């Protein structure tokens, strides 16, 4: 029996409404020589049955049913059963272009690449946006180590990656991926893509980056966790991610460069998940990242994405700000703490003190800011986020992070979680 050239692994949990479109798009590939591994991670809905029905229709499909263990465990289970020379990951609520595998495979083979990176589409409420890498090219091992990795997590603009963290817009070599994936702790549930992508890149000798968009990423609001229920456990998991990256990339990068990259990445993750303003156990604010925005200020929040939702949900509990309105160019039906998303045209300068653009991406921030100014919004009211390195270091120490970016739980917390 001839082995497939590519193994496509799809982790599946609680996505029955989206799964058929994902599978259909993969079975419709112009590239035929692949296997499709559907990993049912103990899904409580009809996903297991959907997988089995499809497997009966196409011999390229292999189904793995396992107990729920999280996204990383599902990706590992898929890789353990993969037979292809290359591996591609597709999330079960997304879908791909008909030439997805054909282009990925040809890019890898034509350039003898260990890793292929491409553009993608972002689908949101029926609107599709094209996202492309900053640049394209073929990079050898020396260039990866001297030009790519020193800026891969933090390229000098808070907090922008030189190469995206996502695993789903990439093609990996199976043998090389085996050296990385099984060392990534399963407890990492935010940033697990970064752990895989950047640790893998550190082992790569050839990288190809293409702007061709091939993957349709579905942004779903029901997939965003709205608040941190256990901050200590959250910090512990983030510490696992950062410490893993420090060990893996520390073999190549100069220490001060790596520490700075991880510092800003960790800070950005904490901000998004905390909703920006951070409280101690007594409920007192000890860190407010929004420059000049004081308690009880009348605030408008722009963005209904993850950061925006977390700001709203955190403020619903604390009432630190007086949130006047919640706006987005992609306004839609969404309610957090009694706030509904409204269009940009619904605001004027007289009704608020500050406007928070809820993004940690500088390119997005500047683009949104420009549009708001065109709408007549006072530029002086648009908030900036603290990015001073010493202040960030002070925050991390206060929270309990160590010099190696790990976060230690005490024995009681370990046992209870």
So how many helices?
13
Largest sheet: 10 strands, mixed
Roughly what fraction of the amino acids lie in strands? 15-25%
- Give the uncertain stretches in residue-range form: 411-417
Radius of gyration: 22 Å
Sum up the overall morphology in one term.
globular
Structural class: alpha/beta
Q: Secondary-structure element order, as H and E?
A: EHEHEHEEHEEEHEHHEHHEEEHEEEEHHH
How many beta-strand runs? 17
Please bin the fraction of helical residues.
25-40%
Through-space gap between termini: 46 Å
How many separate domains make up the residues?
3
Mean pLDDT, rounded to whole units? Answer: 91
Please supply descriptive tags for the structure shown above.
417 residues; alpha/beta; Spore Coat Polysaccharide Biosynthesis Protein SpsA, Chain A; Rossmann fold; 3 domains; 10-stranded mixed β-sheet; 5-stranded mixed β-sheet; 36% helix; globular
Q: Would you summarize the structure shown here?
A:
The chain has 417 residues and is α/β, with parallel strands linked by helices. The protein contains 13 helices and 17 strands. It has 3 domains: 96 residues, Spore Coat Polysaccharide Biosynthesis Protein SpsA, Chain A (Alpha-Beta Complex), CATH 3.90.550.10; 178 residues, no CATH class; 97 residues, Rossmann fold.
Folded structure, characterized:
The protein has 417 residues and is α/β, with parallel strands linked by helices. It has three domains: 1-96, Spore Coat Polysaccharide Biosynthesis Protein SpsA, Chain A, CATH 3.90.550.10; 97-274, no CATH class; 285-381, Rossmann fold (3-Layer(aba) Sandwich). Helices cover 36% and strands 21% of the residues. Strands 1, 2, 3, 4, 5, 6, 7, 8, 9 and 10 form a ten-stranded mixed sheet that branches. Helix 6 (174-181) packs across helix 7, helix 8 (231-249) runs antiparallel to helix 9 and helix 9 (255-274) packs across helix 10. The radius of gyration is 22 Å and the shape is globular. The relative contact order is 0.10.
